[in-house]
Automatic annotation (TrEMBL):
This is Pyridoxamine 5'-phosphate oxidase N-terminal domain-containing protein. Keywords: Oxidoreductase. Residues 11-98 form the Pyridoxamine 5'-phosphate oxidase N-terminal domain. It comes from Actinokineospora cianjurensis. It comes from the Bacteria.
Length: 129
């Protein structure tokens, strides 16, 4: 298994987004693998989504529940997904995280509906030429 896939197989992914002034903001998220992308699901109006709309650059690495890094991070690109693809991400998260994933996403649907959250796909940055 390569390092990228290992990130998706881990329990938590530390996703670092960047403010306008370049300040990094790291957030641990549940993660799943979707083809060659790592995917996660989050609240649509969260600050991380607002930062990603402005700047798709991210750094990703393994972490624990509290966001403590468990290894090195790597540069990547994030993209916000449309509603049908976001639903796919929710299913992948539910499948990976079992009953806890189903309860969490189900509770989110009750509070926010399906439009209140969004899927995010992270792709590896190509190596520098």
């Amino acid at each position: 298994m390569d390092a990228w896939t290992a990130l998706g197989e881990g329990k938590y992914l530390l996703v670092t987004t960047f403010k306008r002034d370049g300040t990094p903001v790291a957030t641990p998220v549940w993660v799943a693998v979707d083809g060659t992308d790592l995917v996660f699901w989050t609240v649509r109006d969260s600050w991380k989504v607002k930062r990603l709309r402005r700047d798709p650059r991210v750094e990703v690495g393994p972490s624990d529940l509290r966001g403590n890094p468990l290894g090195p991070s790597t540069a990547a690109r994030a993209r916000l997904l449309d509603d049908p693809t976001s639903e796919r991400v929710r299913r992948l998260i539910q499948r990976k995280y079992g009953i806890l994933g189903r309860l969490t996403i189900g509770g989110s649907r009750l509070r926010r509906g399906t439009k209140g959250t969004i899927g995010v796909a992270i792709s590896q940055d190509p190596p520098p030429a």
